[in-house]
Amino acid sequence: MRTFTLFAVTMLLALPAVVDAGEEPAKAIIAKAVKAAGLDKDADKLHAETWKDKGTIHLMGQKMDYLADWVFQAPDKYRFELRMELMGQKIEIKMGLDGTKAFESALGMQRAIEGDKLDYVKTEAYQFWIMSLNPLLKDKEFKLKALGDTKVGERVTVGVQVDRAGRPTAKLFFAKDTGLLHKLDITVKNEFDGWKDALDEAFFDDYKDQDGRKAFTKLRVHRNGQLLLEATLSESRRIAPVDVKRFQEP
Fold this sequence. Notes:
alpha+beta
C-alpha cells in the first residue's frame, strides 16, 4: 500500500510538468522568431503598424492589380484603402474595423459589415495580431502546441499550433534556418463561395530590414489550394497608438 501511495503521489506531482511540457517547445520556437525578426525590442509596447502593398488578386479567372495602404492596431483594429482598375473603371475601396463594428465603402456607397463578412474581417485582424508574435508569449489565453518539422516547398520549417477561445485554429510555420515566419494556415469564411469555410495558406518571403526589424516583402495567399493573391509589401513602420476613430466610418 505504501509503495502504491508513493507511486501515486509521484505521478500527481509530475502532472504539471507533463502538461507544461507541451507548450514549452512551442514557446521556444516563438521566442526564437521574435528575436530573429527584431520584435523583442518592442515586446512591452502596444503593437501598431502601417504598411503599403502592391499586388494582384486572382478571382474567377480574372487578374486584378491593386495598390493599398494599411494600418493595424493590436489586438483587433485595422483599416485599408485600396485602389484598383476594373474594366476600365477606377475603383477605391475602404474598409475599417474598430474591434467591434466594421464598415466598407466603394463606388460612392458605404455600409456596415455584418454577419459572415464581419466574422471574416475579425479573423483577418486576428491573423495580424498573432503574426506580431509577442502576444503568443505574454497572453495566457493563447494555447500553443509544437507541431514538429514540416517541409514547405523547399524550405524546412517547424510548426506551432495556436488556439484561442472563439477563434479558429491557426498554424504558424517558421523557417528552421532563420527562425522567421514562413507560412500561416487558418480557416476563414469564403465570400466567393457562399461563406463556406475555406483554408487560407499565406506564404511570407523575401525578408528585408525595415524600421529596425525584419519584415517580409513578398506575400502569397492560396485559398483551398488555389492562388488568390500575390503582393509586394513595403514601408512597414511601427507607429504610436492612434485614436479609435481612425478605424471607424469617416
